[in-house]
Amino acid sequence: MRIPAHSVCTAIRDDIVAGVYERGGRLTEELLARRYGVSRVPVREALRTLEAEGFVVTRRHAGACVAEPTEQEAADLLEMRTLLEPLGAARAAQRRTEAHLKVLRGLVRLGQERARRGNSDDLRSLGGWFHETLAQASGSPALTSMLTQLRHKIAWMYTVEAPAGPVESWTEHGAIVDAVARGDSERARAVTALHAERATGAHRLRFGSAGERAERVRNSQHPVNTASLRH
């Protein structure tokens, strides 16, 4: 069975984001194929995709290596997000479906409930699902793809502190959904811009030690999950 390159790409990207691979470190096809339990063909295709996304660079005499973004490049990503997320929300107000609204409202209810209870363990994942759904509601595959890549890169380059006011943060999520539901593009844009600006202040650049990276490697030895590919 040939494993699709996109599954291998997702696995490698997730490990890069998690810090399993050191920035600047080599990514050899043979070792990656062995690690994920696949042939070298999907690994080669995955590395090409990751290079196009900016996670991998090809260096003379070294081959594929994990990219080493600068602090300025990292800062640019946060600025790009503050510009694109409000645009996505404005488009969502014009193009969202009832299915999108149902999911968004459900996420807001869950987020507000968890925030009131002080249960912050899953607030970050709920927030990620919220913004992913909001991007999809924009009806623009290109914009959705760009926002998805931004989220992956930001997660790679930054740690995010728990919000000082999670209840307020999820109140803002609710205000975004209200504006999207009313079809109010300008309101959706404005509220999302304020929310994105507030969230930017919670981001801190990652500076992991070699020991921490080694621990992540030990805890992340897994093949590509192919169970869903057999059906």
Automatic annotation (TrEMBL):
Residues 2-69 form the HTH gntR-type domain. One of its GO terms (molecular function) is DNA-binding transcription factor activity. Residues 209-231 are annotated as: Disordered. SUPFAM superfamilies: GntR ligand-binding domain-like (SSF48008), Winged helix' DNA-binding domain (SSF46785). Residues 220-231 have a biased composition (Polar residues). Keywords: DNA-binding, Transcription, Transcription regulation. It comes from the Bacteria. InterPro entries: GntR_C (IPR011711), TF_FadR/GntR_C (IPR008920), Tscrpt_reg_HTH_GntR (IPR000524), WH-like_DNA-bd_sf (IPR036388), WH_DNA-bd_sf (IPR036390). Coiled coil: none annotated. This is GntR-family transcriptional regulator.
